[in-house]
Amino acid sequence: MKQLDGHKVIFSVDLSQPCTPYNRVLYELNLILKLLQVYNFRISEILRLNLCHLLKPDKVIVKLSKCKDYFILRDKTIHDALFSVFTTNQSETWTVSYKRIYAYIKRNSPEFVMSGGKHNQRVTHSFRYKTAKELKEKFNDDRIIKAGLNHQSLSSQKYYLK
């Protein structure tokens, strides 16, 4: 367990090392968790990533869900980890599902599980709620919160600030 910006972070796999067929599922889960916690992506944005989103030497293009923009991630460790995942066993997509990610986070870090109406419990948006709250407390500027959540309009963030 490590601390990152005051949050508990579960990194049990060294992402600077290559993915192997033996550690692929745990490697993917740790990589997805890092993308959720550090870069504040939605799970759907992460699970849509594949080999064609990687640009050499260190850029990853992420299509954002709620706006028409792309996010260019300039992180060589993440780029190399994604490349390693997508080239292990010649699979160009993820092998884990949302349910598996949810179960992993719920088991290892239950503070990121939020109750939520019809869909029982939501995991991945809890990172976004925490980010919105922290940005509101630190800057109290709607434009900064909008940028931090990758939203197209200011009204989109009102759900995160309730």
Overview of the structural elements:
With 162 residues, the chain is α+β, with helices and mostly antiparallel strands. The protein has one domain: hpI Integrase, Chain A (Orthogonal Bundle). It contains 6 helices and 7 strands; from the N terminus they run E-E-H-H-E-E-E-H-H-E-E-H-H. The chain has helices at 24-39, 43-47, 76-87, 98-108, 124-139, 142-148, and strands at 2-4, 7-9, 54-55, 59-63, 70-74, 114-115, 121-122. The protein has a 3-stranded antiparallel sheet, covered by helices on one side. Helix 1 runs antiparallel to helix 3 and helix 5 packs antiparallel against helix 6.
Poorly predicted regions: 1-5
- H-E order: EEHHEEEHHEEHH
How would you describe the oligomerization state of the chains in this entry? single chain
Beginning-to-end CA distance, first to last residue: 30 Å
Short account of what is shown:
By secondary structure, the protein is of the alpha+beta class. The protein contains 6 helices and 7 strands; from the N terminus they run E-E-H-H-E-E-E-H-H-E-E-H-H. It has one domain (2-161): hpI Integrase, Chain A.
